[in-house]
Amino acid sequence: MAGVQKVRLNNLNINIKNALIIGIIIAKNSPRIIGNKKKNGDSRGVMSFTLRDSDVDTINVDVWGSEYFVITFYERFLVGDVVEISSPKICIKSGENETFRPQVSSPFYLSLNEGSSDVSIFSGDTFGAYLPLLHIPSKASAGYCGLAEVMKFTERSDNIYVDLLVVVKSVQPAKTIKTKAGVDMSVRGVEIVDNTTPASLTLDIFDLDTIQRAEEWRALESVLFIADARVAWRGRVRVQAGARSVVTHQPHTSDAEALRLYIRNQAGGGEAAAWAAWSGERACAASVAQIRDRLAAGAPFCASLHALLTHLNLDDLVTATDINLEELRVRFADHTGELTARLPVKVLEETLGLSAEQMKTMLAEDRSAIRWRVLLEQCSAKLAVTPPRIIVLSLRRASPADPIPLY
């Protein structure tokens, strides 16, 4: 291309006016419409993406233009596309602008304006050399945080960001929610696990491009490195992929492959077996009092409980404000006391032989009736405990063969 100078990211400087930069898009942020700035009657918009052209070199790119231009740009260029950028404005980063952007290696950022800069799909001879860069974590993969540590965080008003190396356990359907401002927003929940605890955590994704990419993620096979996931609380701790986050699918690291193999091997024996392996013991029969005593020790364990199910409200499936409701509160009682636990919806479905959607669409009286299959019945429950949380792994009506501890 005449009049332009091909430049690598590590050779950028603010005096270059007609740079030609080639790289692969590794992250994108959704467009923002700026309503108080008008030009020719059109709203202005801005979006950003993150570009990489080597193992170590990354940079953030802002795209400015009319609302139509910015939205069209966002839909046209996807994570994983190799692009060439001509005549960007090279700007020096400032601290306030970088708070909600991915961390990058470059001291600069690129600004592209409608009509003065150009971006197109690159199809040159070196195209293939850029594709492996999509699988290199954007931050040092050795510094990630285990999910066991995340679960210990107590709710705070300030933002907490962590790097995670996890395996996808399940991908939930995308849903539409309303923000506090009354704006519709898409969200997808992804259940994630690692090797620090058998418990799973939910990753919330809001960016449309990442929501679509998640369609390709496979349970117990897809490994994710998430740089700067935001810790959030909605009844329980969870993490979010936000404006600062970069989600790397199938990272090319030895830790990622080792984690994938570990989770696959653990899954072979089922969730109860995974908890037993983690705690170093099998799920021994225990009374409510014994479980409460062990809770005080603070170490994770699993147990088998024979007790009366005294509380199960299926109407929570309908009335819950959280459209991604994952658990119901249940209560057990035996001759030693009472215990409250969380019953995952998927375990409830297995116990009653009905899907959550079927139960939601039932008449209220029918929904109330089916709970009596287990409510106020002696039940056998496998429990997984990561203090202070108690999770029901399986639930069924008890048989005479089930042991009942005296204490």
UniProtKB/TrEMBL annotation:
Record has Phosphoprotein as a keyword: no
InterPro entries recorded: MEIOB, NA-bd_OB-fold, OB_MEIOB_N
The UniProt record lists the keyword DNA-binding: yes
Keywords linked to the UniProt accession: DNA-binding, Meiosis
GO molecular function annotations of the record: single-stranded DNA 3'-5' DNA exonuclease activity; single-stranded DNA binding
Residues in MEIOB-like N-terminal domain copies: 3-139
GO biological process: one example: resolution of meiotic recombination intermediates
Family according to the record: Belongs to the MEIOB family.
Full protein name: MEIOB-like N-terminal domain-containing protein
Organism of derivation: Parnassius mnemosyne
